[in-house]
Structure formats: structure tokens, C-alpha cells
Amino acid sequence: MENKNNSFVVTVTPITESSDLNAKTDKKKFKNQQGSIKIPKQSKEELEALMKITNTKFTHEIIDLLINHYVDNKLTPEQQSKFKILTDI
After folding, report:
1. 69-79 confidence digits (pLDDT tens)
2. Which domain does 61 fall in, by range?
3. pTM here?
4. Is 66 part of any domain?
5. I want to staple 56 with a disulfide (CB 3.0 to 4.6 A). Which of 42, 61, 65, 81 is the partner?
């Protein structure tokens, strides 16, 4: 969804077992059902380019990859511990 400021809202909707009762494959269970973040148009285009390059189908997959890379490579061990505590709620 585009607004006046050339920014977009990306809605991440995890796939859950209840959303497709006839699914034949196991689905990953998520703590949150849905979340939205507002990002600039350029970031949306960059996410889409990364999705094409990495053959990922869903936005949440590429965001997970980016978060994991950042946590592993940019945070100090102390920050990684804090991150783990904050996200294991």
C-alpha cells in the first residue's frame, strides 16, 4: 500500500496450520499471526530484489535472513544475549 510519502507498508502473514487445514506439509508455528511495518519505497524494491536473487517466496523469509545475519555478525555477544532474551518471550 503506497502513501503520500512514497513509503509502503509491508504486511507479513506467517503461514499457520489453522490457515490451511488441507495442507499436506508441516507448517512452522509462529508466535505472532501478523505484523506490519512501514518501509520506504526504495527498501521495498531492495527487499524484492533480494527475494528474486535468493529465490525466496515470502517477505518474512528474507527479513528473517537479514535479522539472523545482523545478529550473528554485527551484535556483540552481550547484545546477542539480550536479543535472545527479548525475543524468547
Report:
1. 999 999 999 99
2. 7-87
3. 0.59
4. yes
5. 61
